[in-house]
Write a structure and sequence with these properties.
Structural class of chain A: alpha/beta
Distance between the termini of chain A: 47 Å
Shape of chain A: globular
Largest sheet of chain A: 6 strands, mixed
Oligomer: homodimer
Radius of gyration of chain A: 24 Å
Chain lengths: ~525, ~525
Amino acid sequence: MTEVVGGRRSGGRAARQAARAISNAVSVPYITRKMSPFEVLSEEHLSLIEENADTVLEQVGIDFRDTPEALTLFRDAGADIDGERVRFPRGLARQLVQASAPAQFTQVARNPENNVEIGGMNTVFAPAYGSPFVYDLDNGRRYGTIEDFRNFVKLTYMTPFLHHSGGTVCEPVDIAVNKRHYDMVYAHMRYSDKAFMGSVTHPSRAEDTVAMARILFGSDFLEENTAIVSLANANSPLVWDSTMLGAAKVYAEANQGVLITPFILAGAMSPATVVGAATQTLAEALAGMAFCQLVRPGAPVILGSFASSMSMQSGAPTFGTPEPALILYVMAALARRLGVPFRSGGALTASKIADAQGAYESANTMQPTMLAGVNFVLHTAGWLEGGLSMGYEKFILDVDQAAAWHAFAKGVDMTPNGQAIDALLTNEPGVHFLGHPHTLANFEDAFWRSSNADNGSFEQWDLEGAKDANQRANAVWKKMLADYEPPPIDDAVDAELLEFIERKKDSFPDSFS
Amino acid sequence: MTEVVGGRRSGGRAARQAARAISNAVSVPYITRKMSPFEVLSEEHLSLIEENADTVLEQVGIDFRDTPEALTLFRDAGADIDGERVRFPRGLARQLVQASAPAQFTQVARNPENNVEIGGMNTVFAPAYGSPFVYDLDNGRRYGTIEDFRNFVKLTYMTPFLHHSGGTVCEPVDIAVNKRHYDMVYAHMRYSDKAFMGSVTHPSRAEDTVAMARILFGSDFLEENTAIVSLANANSPLVWDSTMLGAAKVYAEANQGVLITPFILAGAMSPATVVGAATQTLAEALAGMAFCQLVRPGAPVILGSFASSMSMQSGAPTFGTPEPALILYVMAALARRLGVPFRSGGALTASKIADAQGAYESANTMQPTMLAGVNFVLHTAGWLEGGLSMGYEKFILDVDQAAAWHAFAKGVDMTPNGQAIDALLTNEPGVHFLGHPHTLANFEDAFWRSSNADNGSFEQWDLEGAKDANQRANAVWKKMLADYEPPPIDDAVDAELLEFIERKKDSFPDSFS
């Protein structure tokens, strides 16, 4: 391992851990899984859920609120329109999706080495999204700022184990709501060179995002390539509204990707069963994806599922529990059958801190995320408190787990070296393998190595201050930020972006600033 | 939820959490999994590993040290004996196992309601095993005592989410090595009525365990039933020694179960690859199980695998990492092909405390444990520090996770109620499901509920002292121990057990006491 981080010589345990956290020894632009997904239902049962979703779409339908053009598009496509209610003849929504939605697509990054493939056997890790608060050991929980936002973009840029810069890595509440999207999108463009997500809080903000992407990538390039994905949540149950759908329309028209994601607190926003929640998710997602395909056939869409089981006592959302894991496995299988990329999962937890609850719940969500074969993983790192808070230490701990998944996803090495039969046949009973040529040949890469775990003796750990995982992570993110160096950017492009932002911001009344 | 625990009225959050931790609302004597295991290798590749293991058994062989009767048994069975080295003609070890080892067996408990089925689609949870130290938040890390031992037997007895009392739940180092097995076995017999494990530290201690079981169950009953399982570890690589094998022989002769478990620190005790470790594990386990079948055909054996990847930098064992998980999946598949029950996994971690590292690593081991379909899970609760320490709070946290696995293992409910299609068709878009008759009908049992997780608001959590998962668990185990009431036992049997122990202990010189 190198002791030189970011060009500066540095020492100590935190420096070594930071070096491992950003080690690019196994750097890949995204994970390509080598094993088949874990299945919890038979094809027959999955087909039954599809039939039920079709029944919901046919008999109840979906409300498309304040979106007259959606109603027109669906009417022209053969749906039954009743006020704002759209009812789909059996199979129509599925046909609209399957007719043109790509099974897999490339999201380009401004550094082409960071382009990601979304779909198929690929998995793309992005950081957590959407929290108004941030948390760190030194300052506790507080509202997020643009500095926090930039910090998480920088940390994500520095680690090879997150493949995507994400979107609202935290809400920069120190900037007015109607202006902050400029600073957020610019931060992704300037402080990272990985792929990123666009604004969805208003159709005009989606337009701004596309405009900025045209500056960064060039208009012609953007017409031919997907450089933005964005997150559109349904208003479950069975409602799409003008904000999310308006943003989705902007992106689809520009051939940019949309994550069509029902956000379901099962028991409140759907029936209180795994299959009930999955059926509704499928129905809502089919309607949303069909809309995108009507706007622009072939525009990339990702079927998203975000499901939490509600505490039936307190009403609070719970994470890392059995039922959301089962919903995830079911939805992943349904997305495969439909033939579109799938988004779900992440390192989800209801815990306020990265304690044992935080880690159990996160691991219990990342396991099905990976074993189900999720293609786009929002919330891979940092998520706390049901998404209300973005944790600096949690981010580092989750990135370490993301690194481990790179090793797991490679599957079992069945090469002659992996079988190690020569080693087994040349080693005497009772003699350890430490000095065996096979061991020495595999020394460096034999096993995945955590950047955070303390595997040493109790006595050594105690001597070093008996630090827990959070305390170790605290030193790592600080070291990483201290060592951060921005990726190069064309000065003219940067100036044009800044000029665009200044001009747009100046067009708003002062009272909003 | 009841507020009455152990017959005494009690209040407060800890009491409610303790009540949930011991709730028998979903009480089952063991888990019966409803879904097929996750597979990481094809049948062809698994067959190749079996071929390689046969090559190791044929060409290198296994040393059976200081066990002349093993050599005689194997010679008579057709093996090639060279000194203490036993080489197996291809397929012999497998044939000896498959000829008589049961695919599944019942381990009886003194309370027949707690009998467990070991094998097939069943999973039995037992607490952690073998630690010299214990840890709790109040006193930190210290050597275990017989009081700690009894405490963990009591806690295990009280929770329905551990099905088995385990064995050396911690080492009672305050009792002489040659006497402590009496107190340990008696604690399982007296303070619990669940199935338990026997002593393996000397063949005579295995004989003592069998003798005590004959008192508890009756000699005739014990001849016909398996009431003890015990843990026999190989001296990897490729060595069985007289201590473990001697104990295994005692149990097999008495028709009691033996967990034949190579304990592999991959890179040191096996080649540094997943398949190398699995191949060696299979070879060693086949030899050990074949021995048991030669001692008494039909004696229950369990193929065990305990694999840790070695830190190639420090030599320390690591847990919850990708490679041991892959080994677990491979070994589970090999055990299924062989047709014997499988033991592996648990809530393993190298962390000294139940922090985020402890929880991530534990969850990352329990996930493959369950998804691979392990039949007997030693170390389900309490394990810390690579097995050197048994944690009180960790135990409570792990039991909570064990409870969650009961819910997950039920799989997806595809009944009409589970499909919830009537609910979906009778609910208008935009209207929440909280008051829907389907939700109300499923209110109590809709979702699994953690006994430890805090899912509430940050503000409420902060107001209540910002307690982490460990602090919450600390109150729970104390409350449980305070409420403990022993199961009834026949006074005459108890007297006979105590008389046996006193007589045997008196037969040792004083200097050992």
